[in-house]
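Lecture 7 notes. Example A: sequence first, then its structure tokens.
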Amino acid sequence: MKPFFAIVPAICLAAISGCVAPVGPVEVTRFHLPDTTQLGNTMIAVEPGDGMDGASLEFRTYSAAIARELARVGYSESSPGTAAGGQIALLSFDRATYQPGRRNSPVSVGVGGSTGSYRSGVGLGIGFDLSGPPPEQVETRLSVMIRDRESGKTLWEGRASFAVKANSPLADTQLGAAKMAEALFRDFPGNSGETIQVK
């Protein structure tokens, strides 16, 4: 049997890791044309989608994560704005912080009764939930659209979203971008129209 003091640190670490774990897996949906032979094995550039600032640090972080995954599935990186040839990956994302609603009322009322030969009566009990409101969540949504540069035809589109506690390391752009990009391109190109959960 382990000494008590050897068990306490393990319990503390488990509690800490529980505080920063993601609320759920990354939800991913992909769409593509029936013929997927055009995907991979060509030049591609990651470019900003509508409303995206391609010069921002946040965009560059997501762009780098997407470029790594594109290389992993067979693409070769080209410079954004290349005049002709190859494909483009249009990248869009947004992040929002929200406060989840409490599932149960912070006050609960219970009524109990007892009967017997000597005693009878009714008791009223009131309980207060002092745990405070649920922690803030950060939800991130990511979208990548792969198009043929010359024709403008969309060949593949993927969307990913996940939510974590605001104090989780994965709420940080750099860590969250890598996790979402990896989930988005898992088993590329994926089954068109299918939504999966990637842990």
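Example B, a different protein, same format:
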Amino acid sequence: MNAMTQPWTDALRRLADEAGREIMRHYGTATAHLKSDASPVTVADEAAERIIVAGLARLDPTIPIIAEENVAREGFPVTAAERFWLVDPLDGTKEYLNKNGEFTVNIGLIVAGLPTLGVVLAPALGVSYFAADDGCAYATTEGSEARRIQARPVPSTGAVAAISRSHLDKDSEAYLAKHGITAVRSAGSSLKFGLVACGETDVYPRFGRTMEWDTAAGHAVLRAAGGSVRDLAGIEITYGKNGFANPAFIARGRDS
């Protein structure tokens, strides 16, 4: 085990569960207001973030925490540390407001620019994916034991794409057409990374703007499952970039 990543998997899962329960407490009643970037935020986002930030600080107070709502209030850090947390307390606020269940709690640990631990929890669906201390990826459904998951090579029958329920754009449609992908599965938030990681889909193209906290946890899970998240030049995306914005990327399963 990397000495930099202590055995924190269980603690992160409990913390995500606690945040998820708080999110569900407001489900169906929360209303949104717009932040300065015109994205929606609710009381559930803010309450969940407070729970996560406090929990991570107890886990190790020396590791900086970059959390979406805190950044909206206070701005970005000037530089990223060697190790830092990326937190999106409620990824898929539009899905949350639409009450379709496809929203997630995302917590990811970055070490030397790469996501090493991560938890993606969909509290309304009772589904979670996580990259654990042992370097493997796992999935759970409510009431079941965690099972190890692995991304798959593209099957002979052709690739299945995970596409964004709320953010499908012309570039993504062009990518699917160029690669002859006709089988698609729509999902919100970081659930798309989980679908690729567990071998239910093969590729997730994203050309619209995302921030590092949107992808860190899901990227960690997919890496642990044997997949990758690469920019359009084929280079694995890293974290701690200036401005903490991601390039367009293609998340995919195993190459072979």
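Note on Example B: The CA atoms of residues 173 and 220 lie 26 Å apart. The chain has two domains: 9-149, 160-252.
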